[in-house]
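SAMPLE LOG
Freezer: B-3
Tube label: C17
Construct: single chain, 299 aa
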Amino acid sequence: MSSLTLPDVSLTDTAATPGALQWVGMQGIDLPLSLARDQVQVHARADVQVDLPDPAIKGVHMSRLYRLLERLVPPAVLTPARIRTALQDMVDSQADCRSTRARIGLHFDLLCRRPALLSPDLAGWKRYPVQLDASLQQGQFSLEVQVQIGYASTCPCSAALARQRVAEGFAQAFADGEAPTPAAVSDWLARHASLATPHSQRSEAQVTVALDASDAELPLLALIDQVEAALGTPLQTAVKRADEQAFAELNGQNLMFVEDAARRIQAALQKGQWREPRAQVCHMESLHPHDAVAWAGGV
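STRUCTURE (predicted):
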């Protein structure tokens, strides 16, 4: 190999077309992350950028940004404070480019083992997509966490219409005027209570909260648990018939429009004292070829 110094045109050349750039960097970098001590690592994709305010500088030092991401990988545990430190180091690494801002985006799936509703020793794995967006601008640190949470929703209007149709069918079946015996009623319901059924669908909530550098950890599971408890109908993994029946009960007890779901989530997040909570919910209609959506929080 030649002993000559290798050229670095980002330092020796100036921009052919001068101009300041808002953000410059990389995206889609593969990283392992540990969210808690002794926890299985997750596979994340990282986006990292800094600003380039000097219109004459040809380019930033991409390799420095790439190497600094190593400070986030195991055995280090990912925390808000560690993310803030990494952002500051990235700004400092581009001092000769006059950079003053940096941002990091992390995308990964959190896998949680969830038990069946009733069956003992029955459980399965459930995926929760997570997005972390952090920035450091003029010394101000910002960190938002977004989690996607699946649940089931049964339409209250459809449930009312179905109940009416079942009631009509019952009245027609016992129209002879004689009072039916409890056994006859039970038999009729067992065979005909599903004469009409309400429509329900798999639904999704995207929940976003702000964190601070002083927070000790990324409270992802606590956030997920609070939202699922508020909705009452979390998607299930492994089930037996008893668990499926219990899930049907949960849906019957938690009828909700998309507006109801958004309000439930927002009320729970406010009660949980999360900072700057926002929610977007989507009910992927089984009645219509389009979706019902609602937003809560923010502006």
